[in-house]
Amino acid sequence: MAASTPVTVAPDAPRTTDVPLLSWCDEATGERVDLTATQLGDWAARSAGLLRDGCGLRPGDRVAVLLPPHWRTAAVLLGAWAAGLAVSFRPRATAGLPVLEPGGDRPYDAVFVTPERLDDWLEDVPDGTHRYLVGTGPGRLADVPVGWLDWSAEVLRHTDTPPDHAAIRATDPASPDGTSYDEWGRLALTLADQLDLRAGDRLLVDAAEHEQPVTWLLAPLSVGASVVVCANLDPARRDARIAAEQVTRVL
């Protein structure tokens, strides 16, 4: 990941077919997904295609990604940034959206949320022109409300051809508050330095404790470290997880 953009994986990141760049596991269900840099890039490219070609979005358009740490979240975020979009990670209550008229917030161009958060957050989920539910379990969603689409089904309609980055400038907004791609990239590198992350490190992330994607995703990728995101991490099995995953740093 270059300092000028938060979407490019660092050249030192693991890229062989047998070394995962991002691993996600759920200790409650036993589910596990391992993605190499190539595989994660393919999913990000499909997500970018969904937003760019499927939704017709263009650089500078606004996307809300209200998802927990997960491999699908990484694909959505990296895809949105690869398409040059401005991404918010927060619900309406703290998003600081511009008000077009008294009592009305400007809708996002696309919104991504889990079914559980849609139910729990209700009116705090912002309006969006294109609305996607992203499941955290295996397979497609069994029940999708009217007005929403299943990301897992829709993203597969698009190819894994990488998007053209030529239209994206380092000074373009990477989030609706105006923070640029360059600023997010430099913040990721600063956080990586604070965490003492280096190329080749393997970072264990407790998904319940660290939701900010700049911390659990961009910081490690910016320096060529790999990530293990663990949902429902059992404190009693933490040391065993560290040993099994060959973890060198813990967030």
From TrEMBL:
The record places domain AMP-dependent synthetase/ligase at 18-88
- Which Pfam family is an annotated match for this chain, by its short name? AMP-binding
Fetch the InterPro entries from UniProt: AMP-dep_synth/lig_dom (IPR000873), ANL_N_sf (IPR042099), Rv3268 (IPR017523)
User: Would you say which domain of life the source belongs to?
Assistant: Bacteria
Query: NCBIfam families of this UniProt entry?
Result: TIGR03089 family protein
Please report the name of this protein according to its UniProt entry. TIGR03089 family protein
